[in-house]
Write a structure and sequence with these properties.
Elements: H1 2-13, H2 20-35, H3 42-61, H4 63-73, H5 81-86, H6 93-96, E1 110-115, E2 125-129, H7 130-147, E3 153-157, H8 166-177, E4 181-183, H9 190-200, E5 204-207, H10 209-222, E6 230-233, H11 240-250, E7 254-256, E8 259-260, E9 265-266, E10 268-269, E11 277-279, E12 284-289, E13 299-306, E14 317-326, E15 336-342, E16 346-349, E17 352-355, H12 356-364, E18 373-380, E19 383-391, H13 397-407, H14 409-416, E20 420-428, E21 437-441
This protein binds zinc ion.
Zinc ion is lined by residues 271, 274, 278, 328, 330, 332.
């Protein structure tokens, strides 16, 4: 009964037309309520009801799930849904390449499309209806307001200059919804972002750990220092060393954020003192299963089922990130995780996602190489450093760079913008290497 009332209340909060003022009032109420004992267990009850509705909806309306789930999704209810879900097949990123098969609404009803960044080849497309987009934006804005109740001038320093990436777009919408001023500067060059900071004096920054490392270094070089009220960082795991560096320089607590285009952008919440990432259990049902397997595990592959999506709900989606369950004593009644990196050979270099195999193939095919490539990744002073070692005496360094930029154009921006140092060594002997390429990553986890 209480869960039903909360479901109805949550649905009204998630509605599209919440004013910044109302949002701030809600944030105040929710801040107290979430920390009270009354909230314990309630989000999970709401979650089960929403999960049952999602399975039924997806199996009836999306061609993909009609085929994959129809028989299993019939007649599930709040009591049986978790057991039923555990028997359902996983959905993989490769399935989503045929994104139209996942649509539950006519394409004409989409209010936004966003694409995933990083992977080689055609990016995955994720469609959103206008209503669900507004709901996601409201919830993120509410999360911002729960963490900070004063003025908001937010530098959105995410190094993407163009494209349909969800990060900059949804951060801009959420800051507006929270009644703040978004400054989506989107430049690969930290010096330019710093010029915008001097001009508008933001009190908060939304960025990625690699980009903020480069921006902080630039600020140090130029002798610019400002005291900030909030730093929100996502896009790659945040290690303690970087976290302390940012917090010390900018005088602000650092909030880590996790999300992905497929699950609707950022889907975690962390209060200033949180030491783990709380999942947005109103919009996601989360499982962790053993790496590459199917058994539930304390540590392993993250699997998400979306709970409120209209255009493209995803059921048991194996997103490719690894995590473990983690405890936080802040009192939020939402389960929390610690991120552990990728479950495939995807690397995050200076904030850019690349596949080691694709990089190695691009370089190994150049004239003069012996076909063997070694990648060494370190972190120095908060900045990633990639050393690419190529076997073969007559390999042209410029050609190697061109091959890398050809495979991943964003990598060039990352190197030009000082988020990644790149060293190329040619003429080395890698004959003792068994495979065509090797990766040695010594960065802190
Ligand atoms: Zn917490």
């Amino acid at each position: 009964m209480r869960a039903k009332a909360l479901d109805v209340l949550a649905s009204s909060i998630e509605g599209p037309l919440v004013s910044p003022r109302r949002l701030a009032q809600l944030a105040n109420g929710i801040r107290g309520w979430l920390r009270s004992q009354r909230a314990a267990g309630l989000p999970q009850e709401v979650q089960r009801a929403r999960l049952a509705r999602t399975l039924d909806y997806a199996a009836r309306r999306s061609p993909f799930y009609r085929e994959a789930l129809a028989a299993q999704a019939a007649r599930v209810d709040e009591r049986t849904v978790l057991a039923a879900l555990a028997e359902m097949p996983f959905t993989y990123p490769a399935d989503v390449r045929e994104w139209r098969r996942f649509l539950c609404v006519p394409e004409a009803q989409l209010g936004a499309v966003h694409t995933t960044s990083g992977t080689a080849g055609t990016p995955k497309v994720i469609g959103f209806t206008r209503r669900e987009l507004q709901r996601l934006v409201t919830l993120w804005a509410l999360g911002m307001r729960i963490g900070h109740d004063g003025p908001m001038r937010v530098l959105i320093a995410l190094p993407t200059t163009h494209g349909l990436w969800i990060g900059t777009a949804s951060a801009t919408r959420a800051v507006e919804r929270a009644g703040g001023l978004p400054l989506p500067v989107g430049t690969p060059q930290p010096s330019e972002a710093l010029a915008w900071m001097r001009r508008f004096e933001p009190n908060m920054i939304v960025s990625s750990p690699s980009y903020l490392s480069a921006l902080t270094r630039q600020a140090q070089e130029e002798g610019y220092r400002a005291r900030l009220d909030g730093l929100t960082l996502g896009g790659e795991p945040l290690d303690d060393e970087r976290k302390q560096r940012f917090s010390a320089y900018w005088g602000s607590s650092v909030q880590e954020s996790y999300g992905a285009t497929e699950i609707g952008g950022p889907q975690t919440i962390a209060l200033p003192d949180c030491r783990a990432l709380h999942l947005n259990e109103f919009h996601l049902y989360t499982e962790i299963v053993e790496p590459g397997g199917t058994t539930p595990a304390e540590e392993g592959d993250l699997v998400f089922t979306t709970l409120t999506r209209e255009a493209m709900p995803l059921v048991r989606y194996r997103i490719g990130d690894r995590a473990r369950w983690d405890a936080c004593d802040c009192g939020l009644p939402l389960r929390s995780i610690k991120l552990l990196g990728r479950s495939d050979d995807m690397l995050t270099l200076g904030g850019a996602h690349v596949e080691a195999q694709v990089l190695a193939d691009a370089v190994a095919g150049l004239p003069g190489t012996a076909g063997r490539v070694a990648l060494r990744i370190e972190r120095e002073g908060g900045i990633d450093h990639l050393t690419l070692r190529v076997e073969g005496d007559d390999v042209d360094e410029g050609a190697v760079r061109d091959a890398l930029w050809g495979a991943y154009p964003r990598l060039r921006d990352t190197v030009d913008g000082a988020q990644l140092r790149l060293t190329i060594e040619t003429g080395v002997d890698l004959s003792r290497q068994v495979k065509g390429f090797s990766v040695r990553d010594t960065r802190p986890g």
